[in-house]
Design a protein that fits this description.
Strand 10, helix 13 and strand 11 form a beta-alpha-beta unit. The protein has 17 helices and 20 strands. Helices cover 37% and strands 19% of the residues. The chain folds into three domains: 206 residues, 3-Layer(aba) Sandwich (Rossmann fold), CATH 3.40.50; 164 residues, Rossmann fold, CATH 3.40.50; 74 residues, 2-Layer Sandwich (Alpha-Beta Plaits), CATH 3.30.70. The radius of gyration is 23 Å and the shape is globular. The strands form four sheets. The protein has a seven-stranded parallel sheet with strand order 3-4-2-5-6-1-7, sandwiched between helices. A seven-stranded parallel sheet has the order 10-11-9-12-13-8-14, with helices on both faces. It is α/β, with parallel strands linked by helices.
């Protein structure tokens, strides 16, 4: 047994068995550095990029401490976005699946509060949520955090960026002074230092260098040289032909304009930014994750918490405002040991930003010419999958097996042509191969599931 084995930690046998079942072999660097301190009950400041395994680090610490027989809120994880909160809650439930009767509840904005109020009345062991909605429930006296033993601030730098500092401090003030506090952040600006000083007691600080996370990422830089940014992005997409790509922009307006331009030229592209309705944000993320959309054009804040394991390409349509943000953007690709590619567009006005980035990367940045403009005459590839929405979900007792069973009955559709399925209270989404979409819609609209008919349509 080596120091990087999970078995070297003081984890319960059931948690170790779950890790083995999930094929968690060795600890990642951030887990190896932070978990001993977390399990020892110390406050921890951990600096690491997305995709480094930090969620499992604090989840294992929280689950180890949990007394499931005591039906009180014992753990709270605050996240900047709903997407990240749902991802964290999912990992907590997965890692804690051997703990009988554990209840993990998500409290986020953008969805009606009434369902959350009902769930809170029934109690929970762990809450995962966004600061605004958690504070709202707290102020309405629906939350009792007096028995909280662990508070986690995930992606703390983005919570700071989004103006959640006061909300986080107010929530922390409603928790016991003797709680354990863990702060995870990709960057460590002055504001985070001040927040840590307010909320943490004698913290142990651990850090995984960005270079360790990004050694599988190749970076290329291209000069715009008078080419319009949207045309330059199209040239790069035609040249590299990624199956999945995130294009980063600095503002919501530019993000939407670029997504619209790509769609008009036949690209399978979606926009993701803060001006979208929550339902549209959810559907966009769903379609990108299940390969029904190849390209996601996003702002930095909107893309926080994206968990796309197979991302071939990141394009910076605009150079990030600072080196930390650039590092975080490119960290979306090359995850979990896979090779990744990040390309950045720059103009003469970006000289100062490029010089700062050169210092950060400790390398000379050479701008290369864009691919041949003749590529603009090419036809973009369609997404492999399409997403079908079904008017029925958990409330109608639908299960993923019902949907798969209906589609593959009598081999009408091949099992491998059915992709990811997501179930919500009143809706279900299923991804199917583009070639099977018409047949799948016909089946879902005419055959019965759970003894009744459901309506379905393509997003």
């Amino acid at each position: 047994m080596t120091a990087s084995d999970f078995a070297s930690l003081t984890l319960t046998p059931s948690l170790l068995a779950t890790l083995q079942e999930l094929n968690y072999q060795q600890m990642t660097p951030i887990q190896q550095q932070s978990l001993p301190a977390i399990l020892a009950g110390k406050d921890v400041i951990a600096q690491a990029q997305t995709g480094s395994g930090k969620t499992a680090a604090f989840a294992l610490g929280m689950l180890t401490k949990l007394n499931v027989k005591r039906f009180r809120i014992q753990g709270l994880v605050l996240c900047p976005t709903r997407e990240l909160a749902e991802q964290v809650a999912k990992e907590l439930r997965t890692l804690g699946r051997s703990i009988h009767n554990i209840k993990v509840l998500t409290l986020c904005g953008g969805v009606p509060a009434r369902h959350q109020i009902l769930s809170l009345e029934h109690g929970a062991h762990i809450l995962v949520g966004t600061p605004g909605r958690v504070l709202d429930h707290l102020q309405q006296q629906r939350l009792d955090l007096t028995e909280l033993s662990m508070l986690v601030l995930d992606e703390a730098d983005r919570m700071l960026d989004m103006g959640f500092l006061d909300d986080v401090a107010t929530i922390a003030a409603a928790t016991p002074a003797g709680r354990q506090t863990l702060l995870f952040s990709a960057t460590y600006p002055t504001g985070i230092e001040q927040l840590a000083a307010r909320l943490l007691q004698h913290p142990q600080r651990v850090s995984v260098a960005a270079s360790a996370s990004h050694n599988a990422i190749e970076q290329q830089f291209f000069a715009l040289a008078g080419t319009k940014p949207e045309q330059a992005v199209m040239l790069l997409l035609h040249h590299f032909q990624p199956e999945s790509c995130v294009v980063f922009c600095n503002t919501k307006r530019v993000t939407q304009q670029l997504a619209d331009a790509l769609q008009q030229h036949g690209f399978s592209a979606k926009a993701l930014h803060g001006d979208l309705e929550q339902k549209d944000r959810d559907q966009t993320l769903l379609q990108f994750a299940n390969k029904s959309a190849r390209i996601l054009v996003a702002t930095d804040v909107a893309a926080r918490g994206l968990d796309i394991s197979e991302l071939d390409l990141v394009i910076n349509a605009e150079l990030a405002h600072d080196a930390d943000t650039h590092t975080h953007r490119i960290g979306r690709t090359g995850r979990a040991g896979a090779k990744g590619l990040a390309v950045t567009l720059a103009d003469s006005k970006d000289d100062y930003k490029l010089s700062l980035l050169q210092d950060e990367l400790s390398q000379t940045i050479a701008l290369q010419a864009l691919p041949d403009a003749a590529l603009l005459n090419s036809r973009p590839a369609a997404a492999d999958m399409v997403t079908l929405q079904i008017q029925g979900g958990k409330k109608q007792k639908l299960r993923p097996g019902d949907i798969v069973g209906a589609l593959t009955r009598d081999q009408q559709i091949a099992f491998e042509d059915v992709g990811k399925i997501q179930l919500h209270d009143l809706w279900a989404y299923v991804a199917v191969k583009r070639s099977a979409a018409k047949k799948a819609l016909q089946i879902l609209n005419h055959d019965k599931m759970k003894g009744r008919n459901f309506r379905a349509w393509q997003l």
